[in-house]
Amino acid sequence: MESGLPMSPYESDPADRLLTASADGEDQAVEAALRPKLLDEFIGQERVREQLSLVLQAARKRGAAPDHVLLSGPPGLGKTTLSMIIAAELNAPIRITSGPAIQHAGDLAAILSSLTEGEVLFLDEIHRMSRPAEEMLYMAMEDFRVDVIVGKGPGATAIPLELPPFTLVGATTRAGLLPPPLRDRFGFTGHMEFYAPAELERVVHRSAGLLDVEIDPAGAAEIAGRSRGTPRIANRLLRRVRDFAQVRHDGLVSREIAARALEVYEVDARGLDRLDRAVLEALLKLFGGGPVGLSTLAVAVGEEAETVEEVAEPFLVREGLLARTPRGRIATAAAWQHLGLTPPQAPAAARAARGVRQNGLWADGQA
């Protein structure tokens, strides 16, 4: 269900886009098996792990439910996994739902009223919850109470419903869309960052051990370097490389085997997939590096403008291959180099008209 809110660039998960439109049941089961179960097993996010560990240890010593937790950041970095770890560390059950699934206050009331004492409620994409449900959540988080409205019009009656102490774990890819009254009710907020290649190598080695895949350090480094800083993508690339190694070779994943496998799946050395390269090639070959409008660029690659803006552009911008300017999208020098193309030699006046960034300012004087 849709909430009517614009979708974040991060909400279009590149892990799904890289290899398959949606993970089948077997892939989902494997992903669940690869999830760490305790904080000590969780790789990366050192600051968030340390802070969260203190929150959980203090709650256990007090014998009370910990403060509500908000986890923000791009998809695939471990927000759902951390919510399950919180429940495991507290030895408590966990209830999992999502913001788009809660469209009415009654939906939330039904969930809250069935919680047991100390239970963890994980609410994914909490920023996409409906406004009436959001307002009901304020009282539930602060006072462990909700008012259920019975009837309509002048005869409507509010029946107070007491709730057992519980811990809400909210996850969002767009923390800025959370209203301040909701954000302020979380006792702990952790922001998840993209992983460094060395951390992803550890993720790949751990997952390879669980999947019984023989992999050497160079092979793990090759997969990690193409994983966009995201463990979920690293795990999915590992599974596809495993398939390639088992079918066409002896099963050992080396650097050469990993590179050849990912070439088959159209994932290049920087982690760009088919759509990413199509956007760059259109920008460079058809429009001379830009600037070009979003809608024109989308037509050139045969995609919707929203797909280009929300799915391809965030990674290209983060990699320094594409820039958004007041006049449109432009390719950077790194984009020309990555595709092995030579940029056209434009006069200085033309470069200024295109709004190329020079000396920290836009050439037309805009910051």
From TrEMBL:
Catalytic activity: ATP + H2O = ADP + phosphate + H(+)
Residues that hold Mg(2+) according to the record: T80
Protein name (Swiss-Prot/TrEMBL): Holliday junction branch migration complex subunit RuvB
Region annotated Head domain (RuvB-H), chain positions: 269-367
CDD domains membership: AAA
Keyword DNA-binding annotated: yes
Annotated stretches, region: Small ATPAse domain (RuvB-S): 196-266
Gene: ruvB
Subunit structure: Homohexamer. Forms an RuvA(8)-RuvB(12)-Holliday junction (HJ) complex. HJ DNA is sandwiched between 2 RuvA tetramers; dsDNA enters through RuvA and exits via RuvB. An RuvB hexamer assembles on each DNA strand where it exits the tetramer. Each RuvB hexamer is contacted by two RuvA subunits (via domain III) on 2 adjacent RuvB subunits; this complex drives branch migration. In the full resolvosome a probable DNA-RuvA(4)-RuvB(12)-RuvC(2) complex forms which resolves the HJ.
Residues where DNA binds: R324, R329
Gene3D superfamilies: 1.10.8.60, P-loop containing nucleotide triphosphate hydrolases, Winged helix-like DNA-binding domain superfamily/Winged helix DNA-binding domain
Gene Ontology MF annotations: ATP binding; ATP hydrolysis activity; four-way junction DNA binding; four-way junction helicase activity
Large ATPase domain (RuvB-L): annotated segments: 15-195
Function: The RuvA-RuvB-RuvC complex processes Holliday junction (HJ) DNA during genetic recombination and DNA repair, while the RuvA-RuvB complex plays an important role in the rescue of blocked DNA replication forks via replication fork reversal (RFR). RuvA specifically binds to HJ cruciform DNA, conferring on it an open structure. The RuvB hexamer acts as an ATP-dependent pump, pulling dsDNA into and through the RuvAB complex. RuvB forms 2 homohexamers on either side of HJ DNA bound by 1 or 2 RuvA tetramers; 4 subunits per hexamer contact DNA at a time.
UniProt keywords, alphabetically: ATP-binding, Cytoplasm, DNA damage, DNA recombination, DNA repair, DNA-binding, Helicase, Hydrolase, Nucleotide-binding
Intracellular or extracellular location(s): Cytoplasm
Gene Ontology cellular-component terms listed: cytoplasm; Holliday junction resolvase complex
Keyword Amino-acid biosynthesis appears in the UniProt entry: no
